[in-house]
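Bug report

Summary: structure tokens for Type VI secretion system secreted protein VgrG differ between web form and batch submission.
Environment: batch mode, default settings.
Steps: 1) Submit the sequence below via batch. 2) Compare with the web form result.

Sequence submitted:
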Amino acid sequence: MNKPFSQDNKVGKLHTALGKDHLVLLRFDGHSSIDDLFEFNVDALSHEPNIDFNALIGTHATVELDSMSGDKSFFDGVVTEAQWTGVEENGNTYKLVLRPWFWLATRRRNQRIFHNMDVVNIVKEVLGEYSGHGDTTYDINLTRSYPELEYTVQYRESDFTFVTRQLERFGIHYYFVHEDGAHKLVLNDNMDDFPVIDQGTVPFYPIDGQHRPPEEHFWVWHPRRLLTTGAITMTDYNFKTPVSQMLAEQVGDAQYENGQIESFDYPGDYLDRSRGTEVVKLRTLQERSGDHFHAVEGDVVSLNAGCRVTVGGQQVPGILDEEFLCLRVEYSFKSQAYGSGDSGGDQYAYTAKYIMSPVAEPFEPQRTTARPIVHGPQTATVVGEGEIDCDEYGRIWVHFHWDRDKAYSMRCRVSQNWAGKGWGGMIIPRIGMEVVVEFIEGDPDQPLVTGCVYNGKNNAPYALPANKTKSVFKTDTHQGGGFNELTFEDEKDEEKIYMHGQKDQEIHIENDREKRVDNDQFETVGRDKSISVGQDHTETVGRDARHTIGRDVNYKVAQNQIEDYGKDHIHNVGNIHKQAIYADHLISVGRNVEQEVSGKMTVNVVESITTNTGKHTLMAYEKFTIKGPGGSITIGPSGIELKAPKIDLKGMVSMGGSGSAQVPTLSGAANKALPLVEECPKEGE
């Protein structure tokens, strides 16, 4: 029976979910960095040839290392890989890979939208979904303020990529702190908040043969400088404030030649110039953070990425008593072999390589995580309240087909065919429509609706392909069942423009309007029609004109009315024809005038009637009477009757025919201007 392995006297120990010393540590190496995931590779030994990997994968494992001073350091991680690697003299060998719980976020890709949140709350929401991996999974140790973002889109990227992209965007570091059985993610944006290692100061002693002092120290120190971009200029555009000055500039502090080379970029990822000033300052520091690096080797077990340390000991040019931040560590530890007679410990088994940066120099997270790009347009469904839902900019709510979290994904601007200051096109997509969405520079945070498409639910206004020759613009009455429509039919020999208005039509032309119809025109008005002409009204009809009026016609002419007929003018009046003329009435007839009255005719003249004619015939078929103040003349079937108190005849009188014996007397009286009635003597004379 094999003797059980024991790590009690070992400098390095391995603790796993399988239990004490079920797996013992042979070798430990790996790396950790600020703003990156650590990875620890562990070689382990066990008597068990068939370890249940299901009991190991996804659980925490911790490497424990003792320092020369007797302090313990822990390197905890989640077992993400386990492999049996063979059999050695003393047992079965296994390889484990430990990674942070945050690495689990690389396993989950997602597409979602965060509404009206700053970067801190966005990160909290994403990281909170991994809270089951340890008692305390993360600490937020931030001092700056961050803007609230209307929309932030995670698009086809892992939770890890999305979070790190946001942290790099706003200049937030992350690193890990380890303890026995757990580790913690820390967010930090201030150099002073990085922890100092317990020793505070670690000495530097150069390598002297094989000699190593009996204390943790550094023995290799190689400073390095790098020429970086020294100035950042950026600009951006905010559609809500389109005329705002957005250019922002920042120059770095490099003192060497060509240390202020400018980099210009657009868009700058900000909405106003004050925020732009902060952004270019951050981007400049991010560029300058690549300048001061120091490559170091040593055996300081407690020095991890994200810790500060002061260098003491022998003089290294430019670094003695200066404080440094550890940016990266590459670990290497090898335990002494486990043999049947082994009872000793591990000696001088731990070494590490470090990348350091002076605390006094700028250090911000590098922007290494690429923004996701939407390659080409997508479609989405218009959503919102009621039938039409838009804001003051005409933005509409859409729901992307990939958005699982919210019914309302985000408000999108809508492309119009024209967009001026108070003029242009304005068509707001309606709720339920499927719209085409494109993204400015492929940025999922900047959608733009560019069109609409039909689908199996929303059909075209006319059945297709039967009506494929029609070009149609048809609307839908808001909260009603009507529509307006303009349709063009392009079928050969059936070309037609059709217009339908559900209610009113208003046309306003500020100057001339010309309309031409080469064939017939038909106009039907269901009720009233009014025409108001400010000056002249001219109508020219090439042939006939017919007007049919169901009831009355009223004409009111403020001044003159002239009617000119080339031929006949016929009036047919079914009842009374009345004319009221308040001045003269002049009639000029080129030929004859005929009047026919079926009943009576009365002419009332206040002053006089004068008739001038070559011949004048007055004809009465039954009786003709002429009346005046002194008598009357009546011509009837039986003769002529004159009634007057006195009748004077002047001029020659000729009388013929077979009249009575009084005729000569009358004739003589007339010729001599004598009275027609002889005066008789009175009785008694």
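Above is the batch result. After comparison, the two runs are identical; trailing whitespace caused the diff. The longest strand covers residues 72-88. The first helix runs from residue 119 to 128.
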